[in-house]
Amino acid sequence: MRKRKPSSRLGVALVAATLSAMAFSASSVHAKDNIKIAVPAFLSGGAAGPFGVPARNGAEIVIDAINTGKLPAPYNSKGFAGATASVDFVDESGGSTKQVAEYRNLVQKRGMDVVIGYISSGSCVALAPVIEELKTLTVLATCGTPRVFEEKSRKYIFRTMAHATADNVAAAHYVTSLMPSVDSYTGINQNYAWGQDSWRDFDLSVQHLKSSAKASKKLQFPKIFAGQYGTEISALSLDKSKLIHSSFWGGDLEAFIFQGAARGLFKKKKVVFTVGGTAAYRLGKKMPNGLVLGARGPYGILVRDRKTALNEWFVNTYKNRYGTYPPGPSYQYGQAVLATKIAYDKAAKAAGGFPTQEQVIKAFTGMEFESFSTTVKMALGDGHQAITENGYGITKYDNENGEPGITDVKFFPAECVMPPQGVTSVDWIKGGMKGAKC
Amino acid sequence: MSRDRTIPGLTVALAVCAIGGYFIPDWLMNQMMFGFARALAILGLLVLWRTGLVSFGHALYFGLGAYAVALLDINLGISDAFVRLGVAMLVTGGVGTLLGFILRNYRDIFFAMLSLAFSMVLYGILVKTEALGSTDGFTVSPPTFLSAAPEGKYPLFVLICVFGWLAAVLVQGYLRSTLGRLTTAVRDNEIRVEYLGYSVARAIHIKYVMSAVLTGAAGALTAMALGQVDPDSMVNWTASGELVFVTILSGPGSVAAPFIGSLIFELLRTYAFELVPHAWQMIVGGTLLAVIFFLPGGIWSLFARALKADK
């Protein structure tokens, strides 16, 4: 029964472990002809297919083109202020707490100069305090929650697309102005922050724009990643409301579309999917016609046919490399990378040499630029939060070319769907959207 | 009597970490904090495991501890590390005592599944309730220490090391007590233990509460080290699974094993994440398989072998 418990060498072993780990951490000095960019996006799990991988690909083609100076004019100068970017793609999965730990690694261990990305609102909200603490320029690409800049003023964080308020305000505009027969509506949204916020914004906006419209009392809030919507679909079919609002995304969105189509839901009801754009290319011919789709702004299928040099370059390069049209997240990540380049170049011009981070931030703040599909103004959050136009369209499969298509696309200007500086989104909508220019 | 060198060994390790921690880079200190904080939960699971019980629901206590810290911070503005830790342990101790009355009657897969069910109840509540942060969770402000608010992470790092040392020494003392020695006896033959005049249910109940409190402390310290809590990384069944994973990786051989295993897991995951961002889970999972096949006693058996060969 007597065994010796070995342990006194433990201390020695730990010293050795500590020392060897210290050797790994060798400094991260780098020359001015190279900057290190980390691009986090979902690379594993359910959000990788519809969001993460297209986002990563969108960032990749733009970074490659910047490094070789092959972007269309006026962005055809090489590099970020002349510096070539080396890029590390990072997995965003595992929850926001894990992302906080990983962000520290990115900056403190791997010595990143800039972090560009993040899809989930949870990641962005959780990271904001850490980013400010570690003082590293971080450009949020896709995440939607307005909280990031409405809770506090940020110095090191920028977001180059409009926040989620625009999606639901624009949906309300689209429905009330283009679908006059709709006088009642209901919703199916996931029971968590994103779903609850989306419904609230949509409901308040419709009430403001068309007070005669009635919201159903039987709203559906299934839990996130439920995957099975049989009972909800039956309840929605029986509901008298003419329109269904949904902020479903990713796998839940696709499951709901499949199950709803099988039960004829989309023949009975009009449905507006605020982030449905990602599903259009993925489902192809299986996507029912007649759905109202948004893409979180002027991205993806909504702008595929815009004939600007930048947009044509983006669509063709993406299609040649990855074999599909770029969906929304590709545009959003590409736009964030492009914005970073423009800020670096602008700062370099002002400084007359490679800029410091402070100078880049100064150049970035309040900047206005022409992106691949739209004009972006860094107008909110003291010049850190972008506003862009936002629009919706109706799905119609293009049988001639055998590809997904969209009709009746209508865009609303940025100042129409986003609150002005200094007002929080909810207060703005509740207060009757004062200052909106539509 | 054999000389047990666990406690002197742990003390040396504590001194090395506390002094060495002052010189190591920030990222490594972060990793050690996360690793050692999690090790407390592993220590709790180890106590259960030696009785032959595996809980697939200890994220319940991890999450309770973490959310206790976050809610204290947000609702009452309490930032003192000792108060936060104390409250987290009280809460998890209380919940553990209550659930223990039910769980102590179950063994094997029933014990594992029932504990999983309880943890998913908490997960469901958190995700659906906006006042509890829903899926976004909360940001936790940096801790203060008895009204001192020092810069940097070093004070918290020392607190985690000292607390880890204390917990390991106490658990070691418990395992060597009569009640503690019943641990393996219960696993081997419950009926005999009853005939010896001890209550098996009571013994298991005590172990369960111990492991709950240790896991609660782990959650509280992790929340303070990270500055963030959220249901997906802390309360979901995957978080429970991760704790079991690290327990198997560490091995049940010694109270020092959780600390080594947990730190190795943290570093392994970080490097896997960095080197193969698309398939890091495969590296982590592959390591577990390799450990199960080649080191049934966990990583600790490597240390044990090396130390034995020495003598």
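qc> The first strand of chain B starts at residue 138 and ends at 139.
qc> done
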